[in-house]
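Anyone? Bumping this.
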Amino acid sequence: MIESADFLSYLTDNGYTFSTGVPCSYFRDLLIDLEKDDRFTYLPATREDEAMGIATGYFLGAGKTFLIMQNSGLANIGDALTSLTQLYKIPLLMFVSYRGLEPDRDFPEHIIMGDVTKSVLDAYQIPYWVIEEHNWKNVLDNALEIMEELSKPVCILVKKGVLSD
Amino acid sequence: MKGAEVISKLSTILNGEELIVSSNGNVSRQVYHLLQGDHIYLRGSMGLPVPIGLGLALAQPNRTVLVITGDGNFLMGLSAMTTVAHVQPENLKIIVLDNEIYATTGGQNTVSSTIDYITMIQGMGINNSRSFDMSDSDHLISEILKDTTREQGLNVLHLKVEEDTIILDNIPHHPIDIKENFVNRLL
């Protein structure tokens, strides 16, 4: 598991102090530490597309935002990805839990989205990476570089046990 | 009074420093053509002008942020108002131009006619809200707009307006240019 302290320090080192989103249990430990960390403001949104709207406004006001959501939320942000953030070229760092794989075999509500998560991101033309404990910094360095270069949202998929027990 | 007339009247009230987020369709066209300055004219993302305004207000706490939205758009993103109420950004003002229809798509009804906006907005935890029926000529639009845009603190203005009869030209800028112009304005 990635230590929340290391993960949050990486984000502040890269200029992130503001975050919004909708929680997933895969981010439980991270969110506990994020919410009590004075370096950050985390704003709970009611929907994932709302979170993306808040992040867009924050960017246009010269701030950086990282988003947190479950992959079920990918189904709620289709319009925000196509007619807002990609249309206006808004760079955003999205952390999306990768539900519906083997650890979720007893959670049928996640299975179909788990099956199609990568296809959905491909269809929306959103670059994505899966992070693991051993490679996360290199992956994030690369993702941030591509996000800046393309000026669009990029997605980091987070499997069970990577950012929370 | 029509929605475009309200927006037109705003040009005499605003001081030029306000940052405006306008909802997709007719409202963005009207804000583009009738008001000065470079603003965030949304082309799509129905339902998101309020959260975009919220994010902008948080990033620019010393500027007044004004969201101008139609009723259909406002209702689609209604839950974002509960987030706004929770945050209570002092510099955010929201104007809902309520003609009770989806005017841009041909005048289909919204469900707005059965909503008590003030009760709803107060129930969310926003104390400062006003509602006026602009078919009643007793209401002075200049005073109403001055109160909303110049008063301290979060507030919401709901105006019942008549359907616009003139559809303005499309916004001639690509959204990438809309963004660049806005970002450059803040530099």
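Late reply, but here is one note on the structure posted above: The beta strands of chain A are 18-21, 41-44, 65-70, 92-97, 128-131, 153-158.
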